[in-house]
Amino acid sequence: MLKYFRLDNQKIIESDEGNSNILIYISPTNEEKKLLSDLYQLDEHTINSALDPDELSRIEFEANHTAIIYKRPKNISKDKNLLFKVDSIGIFTLKDKIIIIMNEDISLFSSKLFQKVNSLNEVMLKLLSISISHFLEHIKVMNMITDELEKKISSSMENKYLQNFFNIEKSLVYYVNSINSNSVLIERMKNNSAKLGFSQEEIELLDDLIIDNNQCLRQAEIYSNILASLMDARVSIVSNNLNILMKTLNIITIMIMVPTLVVSVFSMNVSLPLQDLPYAFWIILCLCIISVTTVFLIWKYKKW
After folding, report:
1. What's the pLDDT score for residue 289?
2. In terms of residue numbers, what domain contains 252?
3. What pLDDT does residue 233 have?
4. Going by C-beta distance under 8 Å and a sequence separation of 6 or more, which residues neighbour residue 187?
5. Which residues pair with residue 68 across a beta bridge?
6. Number of domains observed in the structure of the chain
7. Statement to judge: residues 207 and 259 lie in one domain
8. Phi and psi based region of residue 10 (left: phi greater than 0; alpha: psi -120 to 50; beta: remaining)
9. Which secondary structure element, helix H or strand E, spans residue 210, and what is its range?
10. pTM of this prediction?
Protein backbone atom coordinates (compact mmCIF):
# COMPACT_ATOMS: atom_id res chain seq x y z
CA MET A 1 0.00 0.00 0.00
CA LEU A 2 1.26 3.46 -0.88
CA LYS A 3 0.13 6.75 0.65
CA TYR A 4 1.06 10.25 -0.45
CA PHE A 5 1.49 13.28 1.82
CA ARG A 6 2.81 16.77 1.34
CA LEU A 7 4.42 19.25 3.70
CA ASP A 8 2.61 22.49 2.98
CA ASN A 9 2.40 25.64 5.10
CA GLN A 10 3.96 23.88 8.12
CA LYS A 11 1.33 21.13 8.00
CA ILE A 12 1.31 17.59 6.64
CA ILE A 13 -1.68 16.92 4.44
CA GLU A 14 -2.73 14.08 2.19
CA SER A 15 -1.78 14.59 -1.41
CA ASP A 16 -1.57 12.89 -4.77
CA GLU A 17 1.40 11.45 -6.52
CA GLY A 18 2.18 14.58 -8.50
CA ASN A 19 3.00 17.06 -5.73
CA SER A 20 3.77 14.79 -2.77
CA ASN A 21 7.09 14.91 -0.94
CA ILE A 22 6.33 12.29 1.74
CA LEU A 23 5.75 8.72 0.52
CA ILE A 24 4.64 5.99 2.90
CA TYR A 25 4.95 2.36 1.80
CA ILE A 26 3.06 -0.11 4.00
CA SER A 27 4.21 -3.72 3.61
CA PRO A 28 5.47 -3.08 0.08
CA THR A 29 5.14 -5.85 -2.45
CA ASN A 30 8.05 -7.20 -4.44
CA GLU A 31 7.06 -4.97 -7.35
CA GLU A 32 7.05 -1.91 -5.10
CA LYS A 33 10.42 -2.88 -3.66
CA LYS A 34 11.82 -3.21 -7.17
CA LEU A 35 10.38 0.19 -8.06
CA LEU A 36 12.02 1.76 -5.01
CA SER A 37 15.29 0.17 -5.92
CA ASP A 38 15.16 1.21 -9.59
CA LEU A 39 13.59 4.65 -9.31
CA TYR A 40 15.22 5.95 -6.11
CA GLN A 41 18.33 3.69 -6.00
CA LEU A 42 17.38 2.34 -2.57
CA ASP A 43 19.35 -0.70 -1.50
CA GLU A 44 17.16 -3.82 -1.50
CA HIS A 45 18.82 -5.15 1.66
CA THR A 46 18.11 -1.88 3.50
CA ILE A 47 14.48 -1.98 2.34
CA ASN A 48 14.09 -5.49 3.77
CA SER A 49 15.87 -4.38 6.96
CA ALA A 50 13.25 -1.65 7.43
CA LEU A 51 10.61 -4.40 7.52
CA ASP A 52 12.54 -6.71 9.87
CA PRO A 53 11.38 -6.42 13.52
CA ASP A 54 14.73 -7.82 14.71
CA GLU A 55 16.83 -5.26 12.85
CA LEU A 56 18.85 -2.84 14.99
CA SER A 57 18.51 0.91 14.58
CA ARG A 58 21.12 2.41 12.31
CA ILE A 59 21.91 5.17 9.81
CA GLU A 60 23.55 4.69 6.43
CA PHE A 61 24.78 7.37 4.06
CA GLU A 62 24.39 6.57 0.38
CA ALA A 63 25.24 8.57 -2.74
CA ASN A 64 21.79 10.10 -3.25
CA HIS A 65 20.01 9.44 0.02
CA THR A 66 20.32 8.69 3.72
CA ALA A 67 18.73 5.56 5.18
CA ILE A 68 17.56 5.57 8.80
CA ILE A 69 16.07 2.54 10.53
CA TYR A 70 14.63 3.01 14.01
CA LYS A 71 12.61 0.95 16.47
CA ARG A 72 9.10 1.60 17.71
CA PRO A 73 6.68 -0.37 19.90
CA LYS A 74 3.86 -2.15 18.15
CA ASN A 75 0.33 -1.09 18.98
CA ILE A 76 -1.00 -2.72 22.14
CA SER A 77 -3.20 -5.69 21.25
CA LYS A 78 -5.66 -7.70 23.33
CA ASP A 79 -3.18 -10.52 23.65
CA LYS A 80 -4.01 -12.60 26.72
CA ASN A 81 -0.34 -13.46 27.07
CA LEU A 82 0.50 -9.76 27.58
CA LEU A 83 3.45 -9.88 25.19
CA PHE A 84 4.53 -6.45 23.99
CA LYS A 85 6.41 -6.42 20.69
CA VAL A 86 8.60 -3.98 18.76
CA ASP A 87 8.84 -3.21 15.08
CA SER A 88 11.14 -1.36 12.69
CA ILE A 89 10.49 1.63 10.45
CA GLY A 90 12.74 2.82 7.64
CA ILE A 91 13.09 6.49 6.66
CA PHE A 92 14.90 7.29 3.43
CA THR A 93 15.68 10.98 3.00
CA LEU A 94 16.28 12.20 -0.53
CA LYS A 95 16.99 15.71 -1.76
CA ASP A 96 13.39 16.89 -1.91
CA LYS A 97 11.35 14.08 -0.33
CA ILE A 98 11.36 11.34 2.29
CA ILE A 99 10.20 7.75 1.85
CA ILE A 100 8.87 5.86 4.88
CA ILE A 101 8.67 2.05 4.82
CA MET A 102 6.87 0.11 7.57
CA ASN A 103 4.91 -3.07 8.24
CA GLU A 104 1.69 -1.78 9.80
CA ASP A 105 -0.84 0.75 8.59
CA ILE A 106 -0.69 3.24 11.45
CA SER A 107 -1.38 6.95 11.61
CA LEU A 108 2.03 8.60 11.77
CA PHE A 109 1.01 12.24 11.62
CA SER A 110 -1.98 12.38 13.97
CA SER A 111 0.05 13.63 16.93
CA LYS A 112 -0.02 17.27 18.04
CA LEU A 113 3.69 17.42 17.25
CA PHE A 114 2.84 17.61 13.57
CA GLN A 115 0.59 20.65 13.85
CA LYS A 116 3.62 22.77 13.01
CA VAL A 117 6.45 21.29 10.95
CA ASN A 118 9.08 23.41 9.22
CA SER A 119 11.08 20.88 7.20
CA LEU A 120 11.35 17.27 6.14
CA ASN A 121 14.22 16.81 8.60
CA GLU A 122 11.89 17.92 11.36
CA VAL A 123 9.35 15.32 10.22
CA MET A 124 11.99 12.64 10.71
CA LEU A 125 12.98 13.94 14.16
CA LYS A 126 9.37 14.15 15.32
CA LEU A 127 8.74 10.58 14.21
CA LEU A 128 11.60 9.56 16.51
CA SER A 129 10.09 11.66 19.30
CA ILE A 130 6.72 9.91 18.92
CA SER A 131 8.46 6.54 19.10
CA ILE A 132 10.08 7.53 22.40
CA SER A 133 6.71 8.69 23.75
CA HIS A 134 5.09 5.39 22.76
CA PHE A 135 7.81 3.44 24.53
CA LEU A 136 7.20 5.47 27.70
CA GLU A 137 3.43 4.95 27.49
CA HIS A 138 3.82 1.20 27.04
CA ILE A 139 6.21 0.99 29.97
CA LYS A 140 3.64 2.74 32.17
CA VAL A 141 0.98 0.29 30.98
CA MET A 142 3.30 -2.62 31.84
CA ASN A 143 3.76 -1.19 35.34
CA MET A 144 -0.01 -0.92 35.83
CA ILE A 145 -0.50 -4.50 34.63
CA THR A 146 2.19 -5.85 36.97
CA ASP A 147 0.50 -4.10 39.92
CA GLU A 148 -2.75 -5.89 39.09
CA LEU A 149 -0.96 -9.22 38.63
CA GLU A 150 0.74 -8.87 42.01
CA LYS A 151 -2.66 -8.57 43.70
CA LYS A 152 -3.89 -11.70 41.92
CA ILE A 153 -0.74 -13.70 42.64
CA SER A 154 -1.02 -13.03 46.38
CA SER A 155 -4.14 -15.21 46.50
CA SER A 156 -3.78 -17.40 43.41
CA MET A 157 -2.25 -20.78 42.72
CA GLU A 158 -2.46 -20.62 38.94
CA ASN A 159 0.56 -20.44 36.69
CA LYS A 160 -1.06 -18.14 34.12
CA TYR A 161 -0.30 -15.03 36.19
CA LEU A 162 3.33 -16.05 36.46
CA GLN A 163 3.38 -16.63 32.71
CA ASN A 164 2.06 -13.11 32.24
CA PHE A 165 4.89 -11.83 34.43
CA PHE A 166 7.44 -13.74 32.37
CA ASN A 167 6.00 -12.28 29.16
CA ILE A 168 6.14 -8.73 30.48
CA GLU A 169 9.70 -9.28 31.67
CA LYS A 170 10.59 -10.63 28.23
CA SER A 171 8.90 -7.64 26.59
CA LEU A 172 10.89 -5.23 28.74
CA VAL A 173 14.13 -6.89 27.66
CA TYR A 174 13.18 -6.29 24.03
CA TYR A 175 12.17 -2.73 24.86
CA VAL A 176 15.46 -2.00 26.60
CA ASN A 177 17.36 -3.38 23.62
CA SER A 178 15.28 -1.34 21.14
CA ILE A 179 15.50 1.90 23.11
CA ASN A 180 19.23 1.46 23.51
CA SER A 181 19.48 0.85 19.76
CA ASN A 182 17.57 4.08 19.12
CA SER A 183 19.93 5.86 21.49
CA VAL A 184 22.93 4.84 19.39
CA LEU A 185 21.10 6.01 16.27
CA ILE A 186 20.29 9.43 17.73
CA GLU A 187 23.87 9.90 18.89
CA ARG A 188 25.14 9.13 15.39
CA MET A 189 22.65 11.59 13.94
CA LYS A 190 23.93 14.23 16.36
CA ASN A 191 27.54 13.55 15.33
CA ASN A 192 26.58 13.81 11.65
CA SER A 193 24.16 16.73 12.00
CA ALA A 194 26.11 18.84 9.49
CA LYS A 195 26.12 16.01 6.95
CA LEU A 196 22.37 15.58 7.42
CA GLY A 197 21.82 19.31 6.89
CA PHE A 198 20.20 20.01 10.27
CA SER A 199 19.50 23.60 11.23
CA GLN A 200 20.22 25.00 14.69
CA GLU A 201 16.60 24.47 15.78
CA GLU A 202 16.72 20.88 14.55
CA ILE A 203 19.97 20.26 16.45
CA GLU A 204 18.30 21.55 19.61
CA LEU A 205 15.38 19.18 18.96
CA LEU A 206 17.91 16.39 18.51
CA ASP A 207 19.45 17.24 21.90
CA ASP A 208 15.99 16.99 23.48
CA LEU A 209 15.53 13.59 21.84
CA ILE A 210 18.80 12.37 23.36
CA ILE A 211 17.65 13.42 26.84
CA ASP A 212 14.15 11.94 26.44
CA ASN A 213 15.45 8.67 25.03
CA ASN A 214 18.01 8.29 27.84
CA GLN A 215 15.27 8.85 30.43
CA CYS A 216 13.09 6.30 28.65
CA LEU A 217 15.96 3.81 28.61
CA ARG A 218 16.65 4.32 32.29
CA GLN A 219 13.00 3.81 33.20
CA ALA A 220 12.76 0.63 31.14
CA GLU A 221 15.94 -0.72 32.78
CA ILE A 222 14.59 0.02 36.27
CA TYR A 223 11.28 -1.78 35.61
CA SER A 224 13.12 -4.69 33.99
CA ASN A 225 15.49 -5.05 36.96
CA ILE A 226 12.62 -4.87 39.46
CA LEU A 227 10.65 -7.58 37.65
CA ALA A 228 13.71 -9.81 37.34
CA SER A 229 14.74 -9.42 40.99
CA LEU A 230 11.26 -10.08 42.39
CA MET A 231 10.31 -12.96 40.10
CA ASP A 232 11.67 -15.61 42.50
CA ALA A 233 9.67 -14.05 45.32
CA ARG A 234 6.49 -14.22 43.26
CA VAL A 235 7.12 -17.86 42.39
CA SER A 236 7.58 -18.56 46.11
CA ILE A 237 4.26 -16.86 46.86
CA VAL A 238 2.41 -19.15 44.46
CA SER A 239 4.17 -22.22 45.93
CA ASN A 240 3.36 -21.06 49.45
CA ASN A 241 -0.31 -20.57 48.51
CA LEU A 242 -0.38 -24.13 47.22
CA ASN A 243 1.23 -25.44 50.44
CA ILE A 244 -1.34 -23.61 52.54
CA LEU A 245 -4.16 -25.13 50.50
CA MET A 246 -2.72 -28.64 50.82
CA LYS A 247 -2.30 -28.20 54.57
CA THR A 248 -5.89 -27.02 54.93
CA LEU A 249 -7.19 -29.95 52.91
CA ASN A 250 -5.19 -32.39 55.04
CA ILE A 251 -6.61 -30.93 58.24
CA ILE A 252 -10.14 -31.18 56.85
CA THR A 253 -9.47 -34.78 55.82
CA ILE A 254 -8.26 -35.67 59.34
CA MET A 255 -11.25 -33.95 60.94
CA ILE A 256 -13.56 -36.04 58.74
CA MET A 257 -11.68 -39.30 59.34
CA VAL A 258 -11.91 -39.16 63.15
CA PRO A 259 -15.74 -39.14 63.42
CA THR A 260 -15.85 -41.65 60.57
CA LEU A 261 -13.74 -43.98 62.70
CA VAL A 262 -16.09 -43.58 65.66
CA VAL A 263 -19.14 -44.33 63.54
CA SER A 264 -17.40 -47.28 61.89
CA VAL A 265 -16.57 -48.85 65.25
CA PHE A 266 -20.17 -48.72 66.39
CA SER A 267 -21.38 -50.08 63.04
CA MET A 268 -19.74 -53.51 63.42
CA ASN A 269 -21.93 -56.64 63.36
CA VAL A 270 -20.78 -57.78 66.78
CA SER A 271 -21.88 -57.13 70.36
CA LEU A 272 -21.03 -53.53 71.18
CA PRO A 273 -21.39 -51.30 74.20
CA LEU A 274 -24.41 -48.99 74.24
CA GLN A 275 -26.29 -51.14 71.70
CA ASP A 276 -29.17 -51.70 74.13
CA LEU A 277 -29.44 -48.09 75.26
CA PRO A 278 -32.31 -46.05 73.76
CA TYR A 279 -30.06 -43.01 73.39
CA ALA A 280 -27.12 -44.84 71.79
CA PHE A 281 -27.40 -42.87 68.55
CA TRP A 282 -27.17 -39.51 70.32
CA ILE A 283 -24.27 -40.72 72.44
CA ILE A 284 -22.34 -41.79 69.33
CA LEU A 285 -23.17 -38.48 67.67
CA CYS A 286 -21.82 -36.61 70.68
CA LEU A 287 -18.63 -38.69 70.54
CA CYS A 288 -18.22 -37.67 66.89
CA ILE A 289 -18.68 -34.00 67.75
CA ILE A 290 -16.22 -34.29 70.64
CA SER A 291 -13.62 -35.95 68.38
CA VAL A 292 -13.95 -33.20 65.74
CA THR A 293 -13.74 -30.51 68.42
CA THR A 294 -10.65 -32.17 69.94
CA VAL A 295 -8.86 -32.26 66.58
CA PHE A 296 -9.80 -28.63 65.96
CA LEU A 297 -8.49 -27.51 69.37
CA ILE A 298 -5.24 -29.41 68.86
CA TRP A 299 -4.91 -27.75 65.43
CA LYS A 300 -5.37 -24.29 66.93
CA TYR A 301 -3.03 -25.02 69.87
CA LYS A 302 -0.26 -26.34 67.63
CA LYS A 303 -0.88 -23.44 65.20
CA TRP A 304 -0.98 -25.74 62.25
Report:
1. 84
2. 242-302
3. 66
4. 210
5. 59, 91
6. 2
7. no
8. left
9. helix 200-265
10. 0.76
